[in-house]
User: Which sequence fits this backbone?
């Protein structure tokens, strides 16, 4: 399970407290596909949902793309 958590301003959806730390480092949730895309996928096991989390210093809007140099 992930120990990093981004601070939240308005808890909705995945940001609700009952979902805190439901991110994990698992190939079911985080992987690179055959086209070199990083994929973060939500999965459900029983009544629990899990997602992938990538943390770092770079900040950009959702949907940002760039070419590897």
Assistant:
């Amino acid at each position: 399970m992930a120990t990093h958590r981004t601070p939240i301003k308005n808890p909705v959806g995945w940001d609700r407290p009952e979902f805190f730390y439901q991110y994990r480092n698992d190939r079911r949730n985080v992987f690179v596909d055959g086209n070199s895309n990083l994929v973060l996928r939500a999965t459900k096991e029983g009544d629990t949902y899990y997602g992938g989390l990538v943390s770092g210093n770079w900040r950009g809007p959702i949907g940002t793309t760039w070419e590897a140099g």
Summary: The mean pLDDT is 76. Residues 22 and 46 are 13 Å apart (CA to CA). The two ends are 32 Å apart (CA to CA). DSSP finds no helices and four strands in the chain.
